[in-house]
Amino acid sequence: MSGTPEPPVIVLVRPQLGENIGKAARAMLNFGLTEMRLVTPRDGWPNPAAGPAASGADVVLAGARVFESVAEAVSDCAHVYATTVRKRGVTKPVLTPHEAAGEIHVNEGRSAILFGPERSGLETDDVAVARAIITVPINPEFGSLNLAQAVILCAYEWSRGRELVQPTMEELLPPAPQDELEGLIGHFEALLEPRGYFFPKSRAAATRRTLRNVLTKPGWNHLEVRTLRGVLSAIEKSTPRD
């Protein structure tokens, strides 16, 4: 992974009111996000109503850029998330803001989060541009977040993630291949067999199966398998033979 991932871009798709753009800017800056992109804002841009609503988040408004389409707005982004209450007929991974923030912190390349118009939300074609959907686990009987509230939820979760400890290289290693795992299981069995572990004989098959389940469940990577094999070898060497 090369360096610290950049903060996500906040993309407001066809926003209707300048006040709501300003409130979204305020929500962003509260949690350290500064890059706003606008897709065909209804009342044009700049909008004089945005400044007072931003309550001092002028750096966000000053840097806001306008685009003619969602595709153009996210053309430099490798990871695009669409916020929507419903899937809108598009089958994509569905994440909470917390889960999406976790991904954004380890993504290679820029990430963008799309927010739809205040009245109707994102259209199906907008969601289709995204790689994944962000849905807030909200009261199913009253799903009524306004634009700034939706932005602040995602910005807050991203901000929280900056404090998390990044995974070590060992934690990022993939699970060991099956032949290494079979070698570990065989090593355990060879060590336990002469010591009467698989007794009585009528239960030996079930005991071996349980041992296999225990050893395959954690998803050891190859360094962990090698360490366990080293432990078993050390035990073998230090244990007097009968």
UniProtKB/TrEMBL annotation:
Catalyzed reactions per annotation: cytidine(32) in tRNA + S-adenosyl-L-methionine = 2'-O-methylcytidine(32) in tRNA + S-adenosyl-L-homocysteine + H(+); uridine(32) in tRNA + S-adenosyl-L-methionine = 2'-O-methyluridine(32) in tRNA + S-adenosyl-L-homocysteine + H(+)
Enzyme class name: transferase
InterPro entries: Alpha/beta_knot_MTases, RNA_MeTrfase_TrmJ/LasT, SpoU_MeTrfase, tRNA_m1G_MTases_N
Keywords, sorted A to Z: Cytoplasm, Methyltransferase, S-adenosyl-L-methionine, Transferase, tRNA processing
Location within or outside the cell: Cytoplasm
Record bears the keyword Transferase: yes
Keyword Zinc: no
Entry EC number(s): 2.1.1.200
Transmembrane portions of the chain: none
Domain tRNA/rRNA methyltransferase SpoU type span(s) in chain numbering: 9-156
UniProt GO molecular function: methyltransferase activity
CDD domains linked: SpoU-like_TrmJ (cd18093)
Principal cellular location given in the protein's record: cytoplasm
A biological process term (GO) from this entry: methylation
NCBIfam families the record matches: rRNA_methyl_1
Function in brief: Catalyzes the formation of 2'O-methylated cytidine (Cm32) or 2'O-methylated uridine (Um32) at position 32 in tRNA.
UniProt subunit comment: Homodimer.
Entry similarity comment: Belongs to the class IV-like SAM-binding methyltransferase superfamily. RNA methyltransferase TrmH family.
Annotated protein name in UniProt: tRNA (cytidine/uridine-2'-O-)-methyltransferase TrmJ
Species of origin: Croceibacterium selenioxidans
Gene that this polypeptide is encoded by: trmJ
